[in-house]
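Morning. Coffee machine broken again, so started the prediction first thing and wrote up yesterday's gels while waiting. Chain of 273 residues, entered below exactly as on the submission form.
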Amino acid sequence: MADLGLAREEDEQMTTYADPGAGRHSASISEIRDWAKAWDTYDPEVHGSQVMPGFYTAARHENWWGSTVSLEQLLDLAQVHGIPVAWVPDRDVLRQLAAAGPTHDEKLAVLVGAEEEIRALCHARLDECHDEWLTAEIAAGHKALAAWDDGHREAAATLAIAALEQILYTLTEAEDRSHGALRQIGRQKPNSYLPARQYVFAPLATLFARYYPERNDPLPDNLSRHAVLHHLPLDHLSRGHCTVAIMLLVSVLRQSQERAQDIRDDLMMAAAD
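Came back before lunch.
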C-alpha cells in the first residue's frame, strides 16, 4: 500500500493506493467498513474458503485474517497487556490469546506454549525485511533472533528492547523524541476503517509506562522498557516477556519495511508523473 488519499464526503469518499505491480485500485470508506463486518470475524473452518476483497488486505494485517478475533480484543491485548498483534503472532495464537483468561499471566502462558511457532514466524517476518535504509536495524533483529535460537532469551530480549527506540522514533515520525511521546502514541485510538498502523504502536502504551525503582515503584506486571534497561530485575524478563520483546522488535521492523516500500513507491510514482 503505497499511497492513501482521502476525499471529503466520508460515506462516498474513495481511498486509493498504488501497487506498481498490479496497477491502481480504489475503494470507498463505506465499502471498507462493510468488508470489515464480514471479514474481521471470518472463520475459514465455519465459512469455508472465500475470496477476500483486495483492499481489505491493505486495511488489516494478514495475521488477523481468519483469526475471528475482533479489533476490540486485539486492542486489549496490545494496549492493556503490551502483546504485539501486528504481523506476529499467527491467527491461531491470536485466537488462543483472546480465549485465555483475563490476567496478564494467563496471556503470557499462551505465548510460552506457542514459543516455537512464534519464533518461526518471527524469522519469516524478519526475512521479509530487506530495505537498505534498515540495514543496521535488520542486523540487530537477526542477532536477537540468533540469541533466541541459542536459548539466550534474556540476552535476545534486552537487545530487542535496546534496538527499538530509535526505530520507533523514525517509524512514528514523532517530533517529540521522548518516552512520554511514544507512550501517548501507543494510547491513541485506532482509525476505525484503516487501523493496521496504530496496532503496531499499541503495545508502547505499557512498554513505556512510567517506572522509577528509586522511588520504590512496584515492578510493572507488563514488560517495561525502563525496568529492563535501568533496573534489570531478571525475574521481570520471564519467558513470556522475552517473547513479547522480540515479537515487538520484529513487528516494528516489518512495519518499517512497509513504510520504506511505501516511500519508494511514492517516489517512483512522482518520478513517472
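The beta strands are 14-19, 23-28. Going to sketch it on the whiteboard this afternoon.
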